[in-house]
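Quick one before lunch.
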Amino acid sequence: MTSDQQRIDSFRQAAGRFASGVTVVTTALDGHLYGITATSFVSLSLNPLLVTVSINSHSPILDEIRASGVFAINVLGRHQQDVSACFARRGRGRSKERFDEVETHSEATGAPVVTGALSWFDCTVHTMLSGGDHIILVGEVVSAGGGTGQPLLYWSGEYRELSTAEEAEADIGRIADSLSIQLHLHGMRAEQLLEAQHAVEPAAAALAARAASDDQVAQLRDLVEESEKHVHDASRYNPLSLEFHARLGLLSGNPAIAASVGALNRPRESVYAVHTNAERATRAVEAHRRILQAIEDRDEDAARRLMTEHLGVVAQGMPC
Ligand SMILES: Cc1cc2nc3c(=O)[nH]c(=O)nc-3n(C[C@H](O)[C@H](O)[C@H](O)COP(=O)(O)O)c2cc1C
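Model of the flavin mononucleotide complex:
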């Protein structure tokens, strides 16, 4: 193998390790529709609203986009792998038959928007830049939209989906967040918050000592170290300190514990925002360090006991 070929292969391999979503870039000209599957989408600028996508300079869609002056980028959902495959078929000229398989409608510019796409950007052509054997298409976004759902992903030469474990975690996070908003809106008193923390957080700390991965523990350490730098600045310290408590729920590996700890996030924010000063913050960081050490040592009993003690000390500073 030539060294050039080796470099190309290494480049391909390295680029293939970059995970991305999947889009279909579409345009319409004289009543005909065109589309090409592309993963090279990037959201570029907020002011003005710009996006880019890189298209092989031999692709006939570039002439159509040049002539029409408009295009849409359709972000595909997890169930649209067939749409991706359909527009990844090589084909010069007009692609009307492909659009017979895929339902579209128009929004602002008249470029076809794939019905059921996870999201879409309807664009006018801002610039077309040369980039080696590709053209970097820069679009000014006239209109954008979409719904909720899971994305179609592409990684290492294959279509992928978010795993069900990640999905479940995201669902639990959303439910816990809306519960925590409700608890906050209904007004949770400091003593009620502490009772609830006493009920779930020692268990979360103990389970985290058993279940957290080494990476997760390292991230927890970074969080504690970052919070220590800001003990004199409540506005920066508070969110980091609260994040420590919230993170333990997720590290427990138990969805019910994660949801219960997450449900306390907003009440925790409002109660502790009022009751922090530098001295209390310094003591809390020391307690967090001890709990972290127990988790690192995989010592479940110590993690549970240290969290209980920490909450006891926290309670002494509360007007309850
Ligand atoms: C997952 C995936 C991602 C792709 N991303 C791009 C891309 O970003 N840019 C590009 O020019 N082609 C990309 N392609 C290749 C084109 O979709 C494919 O070559 C298409 O058939 C070209 O059609 P054309 O002959 O009408 O240009 C991708 C293909 C797949 C399957």
